[in-house]
Amino acid sequence: MSTIAVSRRATAAAVLRAEARLFLREPGSLFWVLLFPALLLAILGAIPSFREVDDELDGLRVVDLYVPVTVLLGLIVAGFQAMPPIVTGYRERGILRRMSTTPVPPSAVLGAQMVLHGTAALVSALLALTVGRLAYDVSLPSQPLGYGLALLLAVAAALALGSVVTALTRTSRIATAVGSAVLFPMMFCVGVWMPIQTMPDVLARIVETTPFGAAAQALGEAAAGDWPGWYHLGVLATWTVAATAVATRWFRWE
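Structure tokens predicted for Transport permease protein:
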């Protein structure tokens, strides 16, 4: 039994290395997932009015509000735009079906893709935090444990929802189209065009019921030194569980 377990771990590690090499050869995904969020924050922070303290924002600056937005942007792109076409393409070309006849299970590929895109999303978040701190003196999260928990739940939600897109689309082209269609509403909910704190109350309450609206609020609370609200964490957990159930029910290897 131990030999089988060691063999499975070695197989999973080999698949992860192979998928990592392929992932690193995709400059488009690397840019949009890893670099674009930090670049967007740098551009927004360069606007002088965004660096001025606003009493209506409880003494914060607009650039302060955009840090959690850009932290979440990378994982949204990873979950909806980058991962689904890859896995769907493998299924479309029959790669997953052929793998089922080999010692390498198709689930190893799916697991590797989730690990890679989850890691890329976390690296993107770290880059955004670094740019905010070094370029615009944005304070680091005052409640790091709560911030980390909210971020991990947000990554899990993004990957689970991305898996739903993968499960319900038959080709990589359709997966790209659906991912793009979902991407823009999620970007609105996270606050790319209007931070949640500046939204009208009714709209803000609606947005907080979405996974990334809740994530943006949870990250903002942790950044201010408070433990993330259990409502926001609960919304994230609920979306993750529901999306995982849907993806598991409808995902097909061929």
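The radius of gyration is 19 Å.
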